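Reopening this ticket.

The earlier resolution said the output was attached, but the attachment link was broken on my side. Pasting everything inline this time so it's all in one place.
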Amino acid sequence: MPTKELIEKAEVRFMPIHSGDGYGYGGGSVLCIGRFAIPFGEHPDAANLALEIARRWNSASALGEQSE
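Inline output:
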């Protein structure tokens, strides 16, 4: 029987962006699945990777729900 996290939907969230004294930080992508948060970094490719993993996770999760 799958654990709760395996049937949770994945979503990508973004850290808030801060700046001060000419130094900016934040805005990084975070893949969230259930109670887990996996940081992917601030590069635009990191956001694309996190979104693709979420898409595939949700696709596989939907297939699992159909087979139950």
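Reporter confirms the inline version is readable. The chain has one domain: 4-15+30-67. The chain has a mean pLDDT of 84.
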